[in-house]
Amino acid sequence: MARRKKPTTRNIRCYLCGKRFTVSTKTMSTTCPACNKAIKVEDVIVKSYVPVIQLQTCGTIKITKRGRIAAKQIQSGDGIDCEGTIDGNIETEGTVRFGPNAVWKGRSLHSRALDIQDGATLIGEVIVPWSRSEDND
Q1: 7, 32, 59, 66 — which has fewest CB within 10 A?
Q2: How far apart are CA 110 and CA 91, in angstroms?
């Protein structure tokens, strides 16, 4: 049986300008070739209280049961997996998954897909399916 090779590159989209490009799977951060701004590519795991103005990554964001994000804007390229609490506006091109005890409070949640388990609490406007405009490709 032949082994499958793991991919060495991945396609991402800049959360600032919308430009799509390819990076190595080991890349943690890079500079966008279109807007020349630094962007985070790595996945983010939140295990405790994290108060920030913006939480942005081209990867995924995972909030554990004891994790809590308080942010004005949360942007994720590959989706969000929440078991804890999110306070803030969400924008992602991936799926947002809320576990049974998850809580989200914000003005708006924009995502391609939404997975809500029984017991989760969502307060705010939800726009699904959503995708960012393709003007910058």
Answers
A1: 7
A2: 5
